[in-house]
Amino acid sequence: RDREIVDAKVIVTCPGRNFVTLKITTRSGVTGLGDATLNGRELAVASYLQDHVVPNLIGRDAGRIEDLWQFLHRGAYWRRGPVTMTAIAAVDVALWDILGKMAGLPLYQLLGGRSREGALVYAHANGRDIAEASDQVGMYREQGFLAIRAQCGVPGVKKAYGISTGTKPYEPAESELPAETIWNTPRYLETAPRLFEQLRKDHGNEVELLHDVHHRLTPIEAARLARDLEPYRLFWLEDATPAENQKSFELIRKHSVTALAVGEVFNSIWDCKHLIENQLIDYIRTTIVHGGGITHVRRIADFAALHQVRTGFHGATDLSPVCMGAALHFDTWVPNFGIQEYMFHSDQTNAVFSHDYAFRAGRLHVGDTPGHGVDIDEKLAARYPYAPKQLPIARLEDGTMWDW
Ligand code: GCO
Ligand code: MG
């Protein structure tokens, strides 16, 4: 009876950017937090939770994590999809957080304990041109990063993905209605290999380098890029082509041994099943918040382990510190860990979401606070009302709608 859920509250706040958080409270007063942020579609998840999930939670046993997951997934009849799975993830993570607090144990301990001292993370370097991107790689190396993602501007491309404007960190969701960007595949295919050629010249072979194509190439173009990048030994090439047609990855594999990562927009094990069991990828990016929580992502990770695919969780700033905290506990435990993406949250965000994870020497380390170790200052959160913002769109020069 102590574990009975007596309250579940959806908190929408915008400390620099929008976040949706679910806070569950038990009869004995233990609270748990789950991230429910879906960038550019935040209120859809808030409503799914508020209008359809919360009424089902009240009165239930917070300790029945698996059963509640099945209830919300199978029981809803309508399965999968980013909105549904993000909402379920929020409930799931909040319940794991509660379990940890009740047991007095950090989350990684509940999962099976530590498999490593810290989680290798990668930072985001970018620049308007190759030289600027290389300078940023140097800057992150000085900060201790062992792995760095690099993106640079492409001649003729307006507002290239991943490139910050001015001195601000990169933030794609910048306007109430989507910004229009222009994409040019030939220019990009020329530029990307030159970027990594320069980075290896400037920084040597020791640093791990990563790159995100962000779904913009056709399968045969992706195969060409993966082949052209081979000499620079990337840690991974991400989202080389849209992954709905999973067979297209066979084409990339046929032409190259560049390691491939996919899955930040996936939300279910069914989205990655073919890619994993056919060993068409090396890293799976689906993380806790968009993949139905710890309960479901654990299933994906175990399945991936059978096929020597490792985790490489999405960790952009649009995933809140609550997701990052939960993901880091998972990273600390999961046997087939690869890497964790890490863009810093702003001071404003960190003031609302205090947390006990910390960066040291290229890795993020979780603390030993019971649960996932991330909290919310609700009073402060209330000072930042929701500010509608959407992700950009991309078109080709002739106006054709493309993948952003
Ligand atoms: C990444 C991602 C992000 C996404 C963003 C969308 O690899 O970090 O591609 O930059 O674009 O999370 O909301
Ligand atoms: Mg990405």
UniProtKB/TrEMBL annotation:
UniProt cross-references to Pfam families, sorted A to Z: MR_MLE_C, MR_MLE_N
Gene3D superfamilies cross-referenced by the UniProt entry: Enolase-like C-terminal domain (3.20.20.120), Enolase-like, N-terminal domain (3.30.390.10)
Molecular-function GO term, any one: magnesium ion binding
GO biological process, one term: amino acid catabolic process
Residue ranges annotated for the Mandelate racemase/muconate lactonizing enzyme C-terminal domain, each copy included: 130-259
TM annotation in the entry: none
Highest taxon of source: Bacteria
Protein name in the entry: D-mannonate dehydratase
Organism of derivation: Pseudoxanthomonas wuyuanensis
Lineage: Bacteria, Pseudomonadati, Pseudomonadota, Gammaproteobacteria, Lysobacterales
